[in-house]
Amino acid sequence: MIKILFICHGNICRSPMAESVFTHMAAERGVAEHFTIASAATSREEIGNPPHHGTRTKLQQEGIAVVPHRARQMTGEDYRNYDYLIGMDDANIRNMTRIAGGADAQGKIFKLLSFAGETRDVADPWYTGDFDAAYRDISAGCKALLEYLLAGEQ
Length: 154
Fold this sequence. Notes:
The protein is of the alpha/beta class.
């Protein structure tokens, strides 16, 4: 079982979108039982809130079910319990590393688009309003992550 935690600033836009997209992709490939997938925030600002309406709308347009979700903050325990902690941008990575105890000693923290060969961030649609662009980036990152993980399972 591979445990993946997707992480963004508030856990209402990008990370629940990634959680839903990856869950959908794994189910389509018939490998969902190999994964535990969740999401979290680096901040406490949105704790308890559902996914942003823009995330819900975009996923609905794409025919992807929104995973039942309430925002929560990442913890040090998450670092110990998950195999992959996937952030959306450089600020997330810095905050995830801080929450993990100041270092990524086990090499578990990654930026999502790095799996797709990109160094750029997934822009936060909370600020940009562009849920289409966030979805394109998240889909590309999740597809590449799934391929990476399945290649490692061979």
